[in-house]
Amino acid sequence: MNTNADLLKELRIDRRPEPPPSRRALWITLAVVVAIVLLGGAAWAFLSRDAGIEVRTAPVVALGSGNAPTSVLDATGYVVARRMATVSAKVTGRVREVLIEEGQRVEAGEVMATLDPIDADAQRDLAAAQLAAARSQIGSVQAQLREAESNAARLGSLVGQQLVSKSQYEQAVAQRDALRAQLAATRRSAQVAAQQTRIAGIGVDNTVVRAPFAGVVIAKAAQPGEIISPLSAGGGFTRTGIGTIVDMDSLEVEVDVGEAFIGRVQPKMPVEATLNAYPDWKIPAEVVAIIPAADRGKATVKVRIALKEKDPRIVPEMGVRVSFLEQPAARPDDQPRGVRVPSAAIVERDGESVAFALGEDDTVERRALRTGDALGNDRQVLSGLRGGETVVLDPPETLGDGSRVRMAEEGEAP
Question: What is the CATH number of domain 71-81+250-325?
Answer without folding.
Answer: 2.40.30.170
